[in-house]
Design brief:
Elements: E1 10-16, H1 20-31, E2 39-40, H2 44-47, E3 50-51, E4 54-55, E5 61-67, E6 73-79, H3 85-93, E7 96-103, H4 107-116, E8 121-127, E9 132-138, H5 140-143, E10 146-152
């Protein structure tokens, strides 16, 4: 039976945190690994972030990643206070699991498939040097979490 993604391998579990430096230390101690570097979410001229379909030049975050399997990461995200799905989650729920991510191909087609099923794209943008794109799909009603789509170019 075909699914939404053409891939059922979880790429990432994302956590929203208030203090990324403290959270990195806690996760590193728990996993028994070195504390990873912190990355900035990037500048709007590269990310082109949209929130609820509108330009969101101030939406940003700090991130850190732990590799926990051959193709799976734990992502820690500290929002910067501007309107974003990250900040909304922190304001509404506090710290915790924000999303499950999957690597996909054909971002626009996948977003369209989700939206036809009533799962709206609530935030979208590029990452890195613009060599990849993410989209958060609101699957809370049916799946009780956000689904993040990740496509590398």
């Amino acid at each position: 039976m075909p699914g939404f993604l053409d891939n059922n391998q979880i790429a990432q579990v994302g956590f929203i945190v208030r203090d990324i430096e403290e959270s990195k230390r806690v996760f590193a101690d728990f996993l028994g690994v070195p504390v990873p570097p912190t990355y900035d979410g990037g500048t709007y001229d590269i990310t082109g972030t949209t929130v609820d379909g509108k330009p969101a030049p101030d939406a940003n975050c700090f991130m850190a990643f732990f590799d926990v399997g051959p193709s799976t990461q734990i992502e820690l995200i500290q929002p910067n206070g501007a309107k974003s799905t990250w900040q909304d989650f922190l304001d509404e729920h506090g710290e915790g699991i924000h999303h499950i991510a999957f690597q996909i191909k054909d971002m626009d087609i996948k977003i369209n498939n989700f939206e036809k099923s009533g799962m709206k794209c609530i935030q979208r943008g590029k990452y890195g040097s613009g060599n990849g794109e993410y989209a958060y799909m609101d699957a809370n009603k049916d799946m009780k979490c956000l689904i993040e789509l990740l496509e590398n170019y």
